[in-house]
Amino acid sequence: MFSIPTWALVALGGHIANGAAFVIDKSLMSRSFKRAATYAGIVGLLGILALVLIPFGVQLPTTLGWVWMVVSGATFVLALWTFFTALSMGEASRVVPIIGSLIPILTLIGTASFLGERLMQNQAIGFSLLIVATIILAGGKAKSRLSRNTIIMAICAAVLFSVSFITVKLGYESDGFLTTFTISRLVGFATAFLILAFDTAALKEVKRAILPSERSSNGQRKGKRAALILVVFAQSLGAVGFVLVQYAISLGSAAIVNALQAIQYAFLVLVAFIFAKKAPNLLGEDLTLQTVIQKSIAIIIVAAGLWLVV
Questions:
Q1: Which residues contact 27 (CB under 8 A, 6 or more apart)?
Q2: Could you tell me the pTM of the whole model?
């Protein structure tokens, strides 16, 4: 009888939660926050909530563990910054496939080099199918070519995300899940604080979201507060997704867990189909017959890839 391993179930739940958060993120990025550093800063600052985990068994890391945790926490927030910057410079339908397909490949190279990870033949085939599905699902109509700077930022984001995932996996191996997760999130908080200190315009956006100006109209203040509430809600979903994905990485292959991000894109496509009439511009999906067929085939490829990797 076919059964799905615990790490795969956890990873699937995490990617779906991240997909739901992305729907809100995309809406806020286009309407409420204009700077990439603003959103990356808010996400990173929420890492301070990891303090509540300290009484539950967080221990002083090993010397090498400190290195993995600091690098992982810092590069994750920097990756968010470069990712949102790339999104602001180019179309999501072209930026996301670059990042989404590079992350699992780079992560596999890293874990193979540092942890000796090797995929079995069926896992390698499933891994490849998930990457192909990621490219298809994240793709869409593109109105213009990406600039060289946009491509560079997208590649930088993929590299930084991969470094974060590789080092956090090394941290989990050396110091366990709870200690590594908690300290890396606190490092992420410190990194976000430095980003906002460096980008004063982003800091002003964060302040306006939290404490709207008295000169603003009631409608503007309510709009800012609503945006902030949505940020907190989205990042609560994102936090759940992040914890689940990180836990899945601690249990299984970091490369395969990242490749399962194709599930997130499949979820986003389904959301776009469901809300096509009520919110046609929610995710920027064109729902022509050709697109529907293309995405449907990609979802079948996801299912086949998932079956092979687990």
A1: 230, 282
A2: 0.80
